[in-house]
Amino acid sequence: MLKYDLVVIGGGPAGMAAALKAKECGVEKIIILERADTLGGILEQCIHAGFGLHYFGEELSGPEYAYRFIQLLKDTDIDVKTDTMVTDIKPNNVVIATNNTDGILEISATAIILAMGCRERPRGALDIPGSRASGIMTAGTAQKYVNIDGYMPGKKIVILGSGDIGLIMARRMTLEGAKVETVCELMPYSGGLQRNIVQCLEDMGIPLRLSCTVIKTHGIERLEGVTIANVDENRRPIPGTEQFIECDTLLLSVGLIPENELTRSAGIMLDPITNGAIVDEYRQTSRPGIFACGNVLHVHDLVDYVTNESQLAGQGAAKYILSKGKGKAAKYISVKAEGGVRYTVPQNINSATDEDVKIYFRVRDVYKNARITVSCGDKVIYSKKKPKLAPGEMENVTIKNEDIKALDKKELIVKVEVSK
User: Fold this and answer.
1) How many distinct structural domains can be found in the chain?
2) Does residue 99 share a domain with residue 11?
3) Which of 22, 54, 88, 196 is a plausible cystine mate for 27, CB 3.0–4.6 Å?
């Protein structure tokens, strides 16, 4: 059995940042296990610019952002095994993995960081009537075809869902010569960043239809068109609003699902809203010595935020390892989402923490002239007015360490108050 201080599962931006931070904090034996052939994760196929503005202070493409961390890894003695699939996490933090070179690996770890990322929601989850014609795929699959493999998925495109990948692929397909007929969004608001709505749709002259969905696909061998319809407040198609659009390709950008099969099998508590682990301020899960970060924890809108969060997980894992897991038992303050707030990360804060804590959250709807508040009982410890809040934009608030230590109750409430 191999023995390491830290095993990082996933070699994307989250896994690399977490491993590097743990090494910086004094952890000696670290290994990254990545199931793909190369490090970098999904960034390898994201050739558009817009990465790194917050973290590096400059605009980079996805591969450039990943390359910087890959080079930093090469300057350390962190071990890396690519083309390696982790199949199980046993009790006492034993990781089971397999690859073509080593066969089955058993790795004993003092701590584990989960950084497996997320996957796209497929067509099968949507229950759209129609045959299994070619030309229907997720936006990320189309992105790989165009940016990595050099294939064009089609010439006349309809995109269902206005998540960031769908918006970016609307622009990409247009630049490659395809005609994007429309982007349909089930909700009355877009799920993507405002900058992507402007740069990828408005600047390209691509229409965005809100409260609209695809209700049927047409074609046997190859997609020939789709029928779309407006939906009511219950997201049900409105009779009489149906419209047929001729197309040969339907791209799906209908949500991302954290890759938490390993997390679940390890008996770690999951948040029903994020579908990721319930964690504390250092991203430690309900199972001591196991941490989670990045899109496996909750879906981020910016890779810069993934990096920041993963460094917290690396720092937390280092503390756990260097104390040999024998630190003081934590007394947690729970963080609850109320009102217009959909979820928070972290969900727990150690009342004895010695640092400020940044709480990330998403809202349920589009709010204008809203106020974000964080309260404990009758005491408001944070309040800030925002001109606009949207589900596609992740928000955060910072709670000062001295405010945490002064709390007299064991629950923080994060909410959005809308002026009438």
Assistant:
1) 3
2) yes
3) 22
Q: 137 and 250 share a domain?
A: yes
Q: In b/e form, how buried is each residue of 285-316, taking b as 16+ CB within 10 angstroms?
A: bbbebbbbbbbbbbbbbbbbbbbbbbbbbbbb
Predicted TM-score of the model (pTM):
0.94
Q: Kind and range of the H or E element at 143?
A: helix 139-144
Which residues are bridge partners to 127 per DSSP? none
> Residue 418 sits in a domain of what CATH number?
2.60.40
Domain that holds residue 131: 122-254
Sheet containing 225-230: give its strands across.
Answer: 212-218, 225-230, 243-246
pLDDT tens column, 365-406: 999 999 999 999 889 999 999 999 999 899 999 999 999 988
Handedness of CA 168, 395, 372, 331 (dihedral sign): positive
* Predicted confidence (pLDDT) per residue in 278-300, tens digit: 999 999 999 999 999 999 999 99
Residues 88 and 133 in one domain: no
* pLDDT of 9 over the 80 cut: yes
Q: Of 144-148, 190-194, 241-245, 357-361, which gets the smallest average pLDDT?
A: 190-194
Q: What's the token pair of residue 205? A: 């002259």
CATH code (residue 68): 3.50.50.60
**Structure confidence by residue, pLDDT tens digits, 310-348:** 999 999 999 999 998 676 677 899 999 998 999 999 999
Cα(34)–Cα(36) distance, rounded to whole angstroms? 6
- Structure-token pair, residue 159: 């995109």
Burial 225-255, CB ≥16 within 10 A → b, else e: bbbbbbbeeeeebeeeeeeebebbbbbbbbe
Residues 6+ apart with CB under 8 A from 175: none
Task: For residue 126, name the pLDDT band (cuts at 50, 70, 90).
Answer: confident
DSSP code per residue over 207-247: -EEESEEEEEEE-SSB--EEEEEEB-TTS-BPTT--EEEE-
- How far is Cα 361 from Cα 338, in angstroms, rounded to an integer? 11
- Distance (Å, whole) CA 99 – CA 231: 47
Residue 357 pLDDT more than 90?
A: yes
